[in-house]
Amino acid sequence: MENIQDIINIGKNLYNKDLTVGTSGNISIKTDKGILITTSGSVLGNLSEKEIVLIDFEGNEQENKKASSEKMLHVEIYKQRSDVKAIIHTHPEYLTTFACCHKALDEPIMSENIIYFEDIPVAPYAMPSSLELVENTVKYLKNRDVVIMANHGAIAVAENLEQAYLKMETAEYYAKVALNTKILGGARYLSQNDVQNLIELKKSKL
User: Fold this and answer.
1) How many CB atoms lie within 10 A of CB 75?
2) CB within 8 A of 30, min separation 6: which ones?
3) What is the pLDDT of residue 196?
């Protein structure tokens, strides 16, 4: 089935960039036939075809495999965001550090983070795989593509899998730089005028 190899390749990239660990996280792609998603307990850095399952747009498995326990989060995001065709949820070290501290990435410290994200909010904590987690997270993804999930990890959405991966990678870099600035006594913020100009630049390129 098409797109399965894309998920396998992205899983390896996530592992090679230290964006996933152990059996945590999940990846999905929206297709005409349904949603291709990683199975429960799979290792993203070492996926095979048997660890990817097709579910319908209500979350029902179409094969004799158990989909990720957070499949309903993916289902609901695809329902709410018609522009999204790929989702990556992982527990990267630096983004998860901010998640555990319930701290959003909203400091204007780099032009790139303004252009790519404007900010990365924190969704309130809820039990993993719960409907509350779905509700808490999806509402923050209405106008953002990367969200930190409190005491959990991060999620990135995009029009394709490569873009979702790049957003997760860039967000993790932003989190790392933000944390490092604390060690040096705090970053010098971009001015409000600088921020507005960057937002206008972003809009002009859409």
Assistant:
1) 24
2) 78, 84, 85, 86
3) 94
Asked if residues 95 and 154 have their Cβ atoms less than 8 Å apart, the reply is yes
First to last CA, the chain: 32
In the predicted model, residues of the chain with pLDDT beneath 70 are 1-2, 206
The answer to whether residues 73 and 137 touch, using CB atoms and an 8 Å cutoff, is: yes
Residues 80-135 have pLDDT tens digits of: 999 999 999 999 999 999 999 999 999 999 998 999 999 999 999 999 999 999 99
Q: Are 47 and 13 in contact (CB under 8 A)?
A: no
Q: Which residues belong to the active site?
A: 70
**Cβ distance 27 to 37 under 8 Å?**
yes
Domain of 200, CATH number, reads 3.40.225.10
Count of the separate structural domains present in the chain: 1
Domain enclosing residue 102, as ranges: 4-204
User: Does an H or E element contain 94, and which?
Assistant: helix 93-100
pLDDT at 205: 72
Number of residues in the chain: 206
Query: Residue 206 has what pLDDT?
Result: 60
Cβ–Cβ under 8 Å, residues 61 and 67: yes
Show Cβ contacts of residue 113 under 8 Å, excluding neighbours closer than 6 positions.
105, 174
Q: Token pair of 183, please?
A: 């060690």
Question: pLDDT value at position 1?
Answer: 46
